Structures are given as C-alpha cells and as structure tokens.
Amino acid sequence: MSIEALRAALPAYARDIATNLSVLAEETVLPDQAKWGCFVASAHAVGEPSALRAIEAAAVAAGLSAEALEAAKTASAIMAMNNVYFRALHLMTSPAYRDLPSRLRMNRLSRPGVAAVDYELWCVAVSAINGCGACLDSHEAELRERGVPTAQVQAALRIAAVVNAVARVLSAESAANPQKWGV
C-alpha cells in the first residue's frame, strides 16, 4: 500500500488527516532522510499494521537506505523504553529517583548509524507520540544546540501527529468493521 492508497483507505470523517498525510509526504522542510525516518519511527511507535507497511514501503521507494530504516526503527524502540522511564521520573514527586543512574542500555543514542540530527528528530517524533515531556525537552535542546531550525522540529512533530492519527483511525475502523478490514 502506498501513501496515496493509505490516504484513500481513510474514511470521509478523516479527510483532514488524509490531506495532511499527503502534504507532509511531499513537504520539503526536512531533507528526505530526516522526513522519511520520522514517518518510519512514528509508524513503528504506533504499530498499526496497515499504516506501518504503507509508510515503510513509501520510505523505501523514496530512497530511505537500509541503514536509515534500521536507525528509525531503533529510535522508536529506544524511545519506547526511555519515554516510559523518563516520563515516570518526571511525573513522580520524589526527586530521589532522578539522582539514580537509569542503568538502561542506550548505546544507539550515541552511535545511531545516521546523522545525529536525523536521529534526534526521530526521537522527538516518537517522544511526542509517547507523551514524554522530559525526552521531548532533552532531544529538542540537542537539536537547538546543533542549529536545527524550529520549522524542522515542528515538521517532525507534525509527522508524528498525523501518523498517530492515521493509525488510530485505521485501528478504530478495523475494530468497528472487522469483515471489511480482514480481521
């Protein structure tokens, strides 16, 4: 399934989501690797099968390398762990836990296999989906320090928001109409 097929699969009530999906797929605010990595990392974060397959296929067709595809998946996996841990620390009232080392392996954060800016953008996208303010702040600060324009960070957030919405709509439609969706 292509992005356009994915867009066409969305029901009429999600017309704005479908339009946003097309606009973001064509947008040039981010370089292609950064953009398609945001799409892939976001699709992995939400895990809805139809959206995930369509987005991965579109990313590969757009030229996302095998290394970048793997790194985007890694960003999603690492953030799935970190977002829970650091969101919990942020929400807990006791500061005692913040002083303890996390003792969680995160080597790929320092050696992602792609440009650090791209990886940081992917971490921002996934952290937005997972709702971790601490991780959002940390990765956004790293991007700012590297001179990334706010419009590029915003583009990563917009991709995350739209991919999340696409996945939620498809999941809801599948639950409501299992025969139509082959479930």
Automatic annotation (TrEMBL):
Does the entry feature the keyword Oxidoreductase, yes or no?
yes
A family per Pfam = CMD
The reaction(s) this protein catalyses: N(6)-[(R)-dihydrolipoyl]-L-lysyl-[lipoyl-carrier protein] + a hydroperoxide = N(6)-[(R)-lipoyl]-L-lysyl-[lipoyl-carrier protein] + an alcohol + H2O
Query: Looking at the keywords, is Disulfide bond present?
Result: yes
**Annotated keywords:** Antioxidant, Disulfide bond, Oxidoreductase, Peroxidase, Redox-active center
Q: Where is the Carboxymuconolactone decarboxylase-like domain?
A: 95-176
Show the disulfide pairing. Answer: 132-135
Reported EC number(s) for this entry are: 1.11.1.28
Residues at the catalytic site: 132 (proton donor), 135 (cysteine sulfenic acid (-soh) intermediate)
* Enzyme class, first EC level, given as a word: oxidoreductase
Entry function: Antioxidant protein with alkyl hydroperoxidase activity. Required for the reduction of the AhpC active site cysteine residues and for the regeneration of the AhpC enzyme activity.
**NCBIfam families tied to this protein:** ahpD, ahpD_dom
The similarity comment for this entry is:
Belongs to the AhpD family.
What is this protein called in UniProt? Answer: Alkyl hydroperoxide reductase AhpD
What is the species of this protein?
Caulobacter segnis
Q: Which gene encodes it?
A: ahpD
